[in-house]
Amino acid sequence: MPRQVVNLSEKLTKFSERWSPRVIAEMNDYQFKLAKIQGEFVWHDHPDTDETFFVVSGSMCIRFEDGEVRLGQGDLYVVPKGVRHQPYAEEECHILLIEPRGVVNTGDAGGELQAPNDVWV
Amino acid sequence: MPRQVVNLSEKLTKFSERWSPRVIAEMNDYQFKLAKIQGEFVWHDHPDTDETFFVVSGSMCIRFEDGEVRLGQGDLYVVPKGVRHQPYAEEECHILLIEPRGVVNTGDAGGELQAPNDVWV
Predict the structure, then answer these.
(1) Which residue segment(s) compose the domain that B39 sits in?
(2) Which residue, A16, A65, B38, B75, has most beta carbons within 10 Å?
(3) Residue B120 gets which letter from DSSP?
(4) Residue pLDDT, tens place only, A107-121
(5) Looking at the domain assignment, is residue A110 inside a domain?
(6) In a domain? residue B109
(7) pTM
């Protein structure tokens, strides 16, 4: 009976840094990562993979070159691979990201918001 | 800006059948599926893939040959590939399953609870 039950709310109490995803579980070669976000992230894309956003609490926006989507608590959205996007949250928002292990948060945009991978909480 | 925002609670109002997963989104070759469960499922395993359970509301149990885990709202658990397990819920529980497209809910156990794949809601 390997692996542990992970409670999202409990894990969210264990870090406060924004734009700094924390791994909470792995499924095959995919990772589940919690993140706290506020303000504007960098425009970027992930050329090789889709990326799933699930809002645990709060609300956020994902801007695209041709529009935007607004996500509230309990909303799930999959950003297709190769689509440039910019996450944005007016107030702090807590999200669950699901994507393959090794995906860099800023894609190939880099910059000061690029976070290290494989940081567990 | 392809694909739509999916709200889990809203999608859960659209079906009532138990043990009958409904696809709500796809990420690469993975699917997100909502299910309503109550009672005992069949013992089975998935020899080729991990399987993620996330409890949206209610509580459930996953029995293993050497123990069990109990999951409540906001809990996430990954059943490792090849591990025999039996989901169980005393009262109706609403869950989000995440696993590769094409995984059969009963593994190779079959039986009357085997559900068709790729039924979207």
Answers:
(1) 17-100
(2) B75
(3) B
(4) 989 999 999 999 999
(5) no
(6) no
(7) 0.96
